């Protein structure tokens, strides 16, 4: 699908030397700009096919495994929403960009342990992966301690295999109520990853049913975070309001160790 290869990337920069202009080669910048434009056009085309306006879908570029210099370049290119899935990687990236005066809207999209809540609540604006009440409580307490509020999405496990994160469909309502009652969380909607082997359309239709149920608890919880590089078109056709794309914009990731 994406045959581009990443150019050789410089060694990771020490935190105080984040100079996007220095670290990002012109060709990498051009590549990111082209990928971003192409991706935005493809989302707009999917919106048009769905009879929706392009501004009804928010693009979140997932920068995991890519260097801070790429994230900084994306912000400079006008991409305001960035996603990460591991606190160990996200926290220093957010700090580096902040030190360089760049303040993207950070979305935490990965499985989250309660003991990371304090760190995540310090930089994330959105957490897409709230899947149990104790985590919601920990995030709310942590956000409160930082004097912030967090936008929370309920991650739903559409196939019930909760090993990959997410609350089982049957347990949605009590979690929605717990999040709605958490003082420093704002319940915004639902999120899911299409289960392996499922037709994306089937997955996103079930997610829409979950969204309806959550909106019965909180009518303002209208966001639906669905769609990755392989299935974002189907997600937009099914009504997603947020798509989370990594490879489409940044290129293939190195295989995880
Ligand atoms: C990595 C990741 C994405 C982006 O995946 P791509 O296939 O690179 O688009 C989206 N959502 C979550 C939860 C992820 O971990």
TrEMBL record:
Gene3D superfamilies in alphabetical order: Alanine racemase
A Pfam cross-reference name: Ala_racemase_N
Region (Disordered): 1-30
Keywords noted in UniProt: Pyridoxal phosphate
InterPro entries: Ala_racemase_N (IPR001608), PLP-binding_barrel (IPR029066), PyrdxlP_homeostasis (IPR011078)
Skewed-composition ranges (Low complexity): 1-15
Keyword Cytoplasm among record annotations: no
Record-listed N6-(pyridoxal phosphate)lysine modification sites: 64
CDD domains in the cross-refs: PLPDE_III_YBL036c_like (cd00635)
Keyword Nucleotide-binding in record: no
Domain Alanine racemase N-terminal positions: 56-251
Family: Belongs to the pyridoxal phosphate-binding protein YggS/PROSC family.
Free-text function comment from the UniProt entry: Pyridoxal 5'-phosphate (PLP)-binding protein, which is involved in PLP homeostasis.
Name under which the protein is recorded: Pyridoxal phosphate homeostasis protein
Organism (species): Glycomyces niveus
